[in-house]
Amino acid sequence: MTPDQILGRVLYKDQDVIVLDKPAGLAVHAGPNSPNHLELYLDALSFGWAHPPRLAHRLDRDTAGCLVLGRHDKAIKRLGRLFAAHRVDKRYWSVCHGGPEGERGTVDAPLLKVSARGQGWRIRVDSAGQQAVTDWTVLGRADGLSWIEWRPRTGRTHQIRIHAKHLGCPLLGDAYYGPDPDTKIRLHLLARSIGLPPLSPNKPPIAATAPVPEHMRQALLDCGWDGL
Fold first, then answer.
1. For 57-110, what is each residue's pLDDT tens digit?
2. Is residue 227 part of a domain?
3. Which intervals hold domain Pseudouridine synthase RsuA/RluA-like (predicted)?
4. Are 111 and 152 in contact (CB under 8 A)?
5. Which pLDDT value is given to residue 119?
6. Who's near 198: CB < 8 A, 6+ residues apart?
7. CA dist., res. 31 & res. 37, Å (int)
8. Enzyme catalytic residues
């Protein structure tokens, strides 16, 4: 990613916060399998300040869309409190295999991280896990597919992906939890929009909406999305 490319993905900027449209396939942190990651490119978002912004939360590598960055220490602390208090309005779009009965509902199913020797780790629904709650609304349907908006009340790892599977409609392109582990289709999960209360007095609330990535467009159009 070049500096111009990352600057072109800024959805919102003020003195406290930047909201970035993270591309699918780019990890936010360094890791054993992530030599290329977002933190390598954050200097381009300094906008003349001495230090680059920092991550206020995270998105999975294969999830596209709204990612919040704090521009200074006070902003990072305030953002951390907002996320911890569940005061951030996060809305995700997905395309799923099949679809749930009904048009809206809530998944309340605790999630537990488990490890298997030689197989890494996975998340599963388990009564011994952490509370996880996600509201969902079907926005459209097609033959064998559904377009769903998810509003997570909690922020657990892989929460939407596991709750979709638990609901009986795993995400299209989910190689970990979907029906086809060998799929070449990218994960159809987008952090579509985010809303935060003002971080400073006399400032408006923060809101940003991410565009639909190219790999999700056709499936969403098939499900009735108007392309806007």
1. 999 999 999 999 999 999 999 999 999 999 999 999 999 999 999 999 999 999
2. no
3. 16-166
4. no
5. 67
6. 204, 205, 206
7. 9
8. 60
Nearest to 146 by CA among 98, 217, 215: 98
Q: Is residue 9 a part of any domain in this protein?
A: yes
> What CA–CA distance (Å, rounded) separates 216 from 139?
15
First and final CA of the chain: distance in angstroms? Answer: 26
The tokens for 114 are: 């488990």
- Residue 66 belongs to domain with CATH number: 3.30.2350.10
Strand residue runs (E) in 27-144: 54-55, 64-70, 89-97, 104-108, 111-116, 120-125, 133-142
How would you classify the pairing of strands 104-108 and 89-97?
A: unpaired
Over residues 15-30, the pLDDT tens digits come to 999 999 999 999 998 8
Tell me if 48 is assigned to some domain.
Answer: yes
Identify the three-state secondary structure at position 172. Answer: coil
Sequence-distant (≥ 6) Cβ neighbours of residue 214 within 8 angstroms: none
- Give the residue numbers spanning the domain of 154: 3-222
Q: 8, 1 in Cβ contact below 8 A?
A: no
Collect all residues with Cβ–Cβ distance below 8 Å to 129 and sequence separation of at least 6: 110, 111, 112, 113
Total tally of structural domains belonging to the chain: 1
Helix, strand, coil share (%) of the chain residues, nearest 5? 20, 35, 45
Taking Cα atoms as reference points, which of 115, 104, 91 lies closest to residue 189?
Answer: 91
pTM, full prediction: 0.94
